[in-house]
Amino acid sequence: MADGGATLGERLAGRAGARGARVTARRTPAIPGAALAIAAFAGIALTLSGCAPAAPDPEPTASESAPAPDTTDGGATGEAETPSEAGESVVIPGCDEIIPLAQVQAKLGANFEPWEGPEDTGHLTASLGPSAVTAFEAATAVQPCYWGVPLSDHTTNLFVAKLPTASRVALVDDLRSSDYVETESQGITLFHHTVNDGVMEQTNWFGFEGDVWVASTHYGEQLPVELAFAGVRAANPDWRPGTV
């Protein structure tokens, strides 16, 4: 009987060791939930090996090794489940908050007033260029703003957009390899380019902070892009934009 018991214990220990080896080989998946399930299965295998008569002490080893998968899994899960893009938490406010009328009038004239502008935003892309149009079409939110002198053709406009990070990176890369001139102001990465069509000069100003894009494309005097970013920041006091 003693020999038979020893043989059974050896069998259990041998099976548990083999299962533990298989578990170790399977602990490579990067999926946190799968890693946790496999770690729990490894704990069961170690406990079974501790039940063999010849090895009464493995239980403390199993309990000591158990927290490690939990700690690792918790860290991995925290990183995997909380990805965030720089502009994800930004809420684009209305035009009266983006640039208050008093600032518009101080810059352009006391007779400027806000107006609704056309519902179709296609005109905003007319002078952007292919890369900027692609980014505009990928935007997750766009707020166009218009101001002008009533009963005249004195108008100006800009828009504020939230871009997916990949779209913002692609646009900025293209701008840096183009004729646009890059500058920096108040933490904002700026690009500008002026074109003369033979009649008038048109200047495009693009500004980026995190994944927020402000664009002003106009003939004549324009509102500074920095004013729009100041309004976005004021409306989002907890916003911490990333580096462009």
Q: How would you describe what is shown here?
A:
With 244 residues, the protein is α+β, with helices and mostly antiparallel strands. 45% of the residues lie in helices and 20% in strands. It contains nine helices and seven strands. The chain has helices at 2-25, 32-50, 58-65, 67-81, 95-98, 101-108, 130-138, 165-176, 225-235; strands spanning 113-114, 141-148, 155-162, 181-185, 188-196, 201-209, 212-219. The protein has a seven-stranded antiparallel beta sheet with strand order 1-2-3-7-6-5-4, with helices on both faces. A hairpin with a 6-residue loop joins strand 2 (141-148) and strand 3. Helix 2 runs antiparallel to helix 3 and helix 7 (130-138) packs antiparallel against helix 8 (165-176). The protein is globular. The N and C termini lie far apart (76 Å). Mean pLDDT is 73; it is low at 1-56 and 60-87.
Please compute the radius of gyration using only Cα atoms: 31 Å
Question: SS-based structural class?
Answer: alpha+beta
What order do the helices and strands follow? HHHHHHEHEEHEEEEH
Proportion of helical residues? 40-55%
Strand content: 15-25%
The strand count comes to 7
Largest sheet: 7 strands, antiparallel
Query: What does the overall shape look like?
Result: globular
Low-confidence runs (pLDDT<50, min 5 residues)? 1-56, 60-87
* Termini separation: 76 Å
* Overall average residue pLDDT: 73
Total of helices: 9
Placed side by side, the strands forming the largest sheet appear as 1-2-3-7-6-5-4
Summarize the SSE layout with pairings.
Elements (H helix, E strand, L loop, with lengths): L1 H24 L6 H19 L7 H8 L1 H15 L13 H4 L2 H8 L4 E2 L15 H9 L2 E8 L6 E8 L2 H12 L4 E5 L2 E9 L4 E9 L2 E8 L5 H11 L9
Helix pairs in contact: 1-2, 2-3, 2-4, 7-8
